[in-house]
Structures are given as C-alpha cells and as structure tokens.
Amino acid sequence: EFSEFIRYAFARERPYVTLADELRYVEKYLRLLVRVQVAPEVLHTRIPALSVQPLVENAIRHGLEMGIGGNVEIVASDLDREVELRVTDDGAGMPPERAQAALDGQTDGIGLANVHRRLQTTFGESYGLEIESQPGRARRW
Q1: Among 48, 74, 89, 111, which is most exposed with the fewest C-beta within 10 angstroms?
Q2: Is 138 exposed, middle or buried (0-12, 13-18, 19+ CB in 10 A)?
Q3: Coil/strand/helix, residue 33
Q4: H/E run at residue 34
C-alpha cells in the first residue's frame, strides 16, 4: 500500500484525479504511518546499497500483513564509532525460529538473508541483522 501511495503521489502524467481516487489514497496513507528519526551525524555513513529498503519492505509486507498495527519506524543512532539502524513495525510479530530461518535464507523470501550477508561481508562477522520479535512490536535491524 505504501508503494502504491508513493506511485500515486508522484504520478505526473495525470494532473487531475477524481475525489474518490484522492480519498482512497488518503485512506491508504492514514493506515500506514512511517516515522523516520535519524541522528544528523550519521546521515553520511556509508552502507551497502539497498540495505534499508528491504527491511522497510519486509516490515510493511510481512509485519503488517495481518491487519495488525500500521506503523513503521526507522531510527538511526550514533553509537560513537558505530551506527545502529532499527526498522520497527507494530505488526503481529513472528516466532524466534522463523526469524532465524529468515536470516539463514531458509524461507521463501531472500531480502533479510541477503542484507544480513552483505552487512557481514562489508563490516565483519560480528555485524549484520538481529531480529527481535514479539506480538505488537516486531523489530528488525
């Protein structure tokens, strides 16, 4: 729904839409709140391309798919010589076994495993994604 909203918001080939279309997309926007809180000092941190987008997509697609929740938060914090990036949703959560399987690439999707491996390849084995999950507050980073 978020990607559909973005496509609608940036569609330049149609300067006018019906009120019904406009109200439908306002409803989509209201159902999904994305909050971004990034420390200014970490904005120039270099990371592998397409590291954040799969996490946000995963939070939207899987974290909110059951109609529970509707908020996604992206937080980047300065930890002196490191940066912590958290993508959080308030969806249904997932069991720890499923979270580990996602990191190991043993699920249908490859996004989390791919980002996890690229972070470890770039920064070392002690880096990568960790998944904390509980109903109503599923965290991915």
Answers
A1: 48
A2: buried
A3: strand
A4: strand 33-38
